[in-house]
């Protein structure tokens, strides 16, 4: 099984894996970037996932498609479009979020991972007062 297939399998439901499963897809020197922060190295990524696993009841990714990129000067070899469904422990609220991930693969291992998604949609809009304000602002800007 190639690394992209292993990636899709692991991301089916992050809450059903252990952080050791990340060894199957990420290099020791992985650079993992999301809208919150940058993680450098597999140990840092495992720590990030460990925190996620403690807080989430489910975290599923429906990967719509993965596009292979033509060779270029950057690290990106694949682009994945996905929809994430997240339920936090102790909450009935389901957070659904669309996003895109850029992946860099070398020697059948991921060396670069960068996520693009709306952080406000994922986090801020779910904070009671702040969420109300953000939704009002979005509504005015959409007119």
What does this 3D model show about the protein?
The longest helix has 14 residues, at 42-55. The chain is an alpha+beta fold and 143 residues long. It has helices at residues 3-10, 42-55, 119-122, 128-141, and strands spanning 26-33, 38-40, 56-68, 78-88, 94-106, 109-117.
- Structural class assignment: alpha+beta
Q: In this structure, how is the largest beta sheet organized?
A: 6 strands, mixed
Would you count the extended β strands for me?
A: 6
Counted by DSSP, the helix tally is: 4
Sheet-strand content, in percent, reads 35-45%
Element order: H for helix, E for strand: HEEHEEEEHH
Strand order in the largest sheet: 2-1-6-5-4-3
Mean pLDDT, to the nearest integer, reads 85
Which regions contain 5 or more consecutive residues with pLDDT less than 50? none
Through-space gap between termini: 48 Å
Proportion of residues in helical segments? 25-40%
- Overall morphology: globular
- Radius of gyration (CA) equals 16 Å
Secondary structure blueprint with pairings:
Elements: H1 3-10, E1 26-33, E2 38-40, H2 42-55, E3 56-68, E4 78-88, E5 94-106, E6 109-117, H3 119-122, H4 128-141
Parallel strand pairs: 1-6
Antiparallel strand pairs: 1-2, 3-4, 4-5, 5-6
């Amino acid at each position: 099984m190639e690394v992209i297939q292993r990636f899709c399998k692991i991301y089916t439901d992050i809450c059903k894996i252990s952080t050791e499963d990340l060894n199957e897809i990420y290099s020791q020197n992985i650079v993992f970037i999301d809208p919150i922060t940058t993680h450098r190295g597999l140990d840092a990524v495992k720590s990030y996932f460990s925190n996620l696993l403690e807080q989430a009841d489910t975290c599923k990714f429906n990967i719509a498609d993965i596009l292979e990129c033509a060779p270029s000067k950057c690290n990106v070899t694949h682009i994945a479009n996905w929809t994430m469904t997240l339920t936090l422990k102790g909450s009935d609220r389901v957070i659904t979020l669309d996003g895109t991930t850029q992946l860099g693969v070398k020697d059948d291992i991921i060396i670069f991972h960068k996520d693009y998604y709306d952080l406000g949609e994922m986090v801020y809009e779910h904070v009671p007062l702040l969420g109300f304000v953000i939704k009002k602002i979005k509504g005015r800007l959409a007119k």
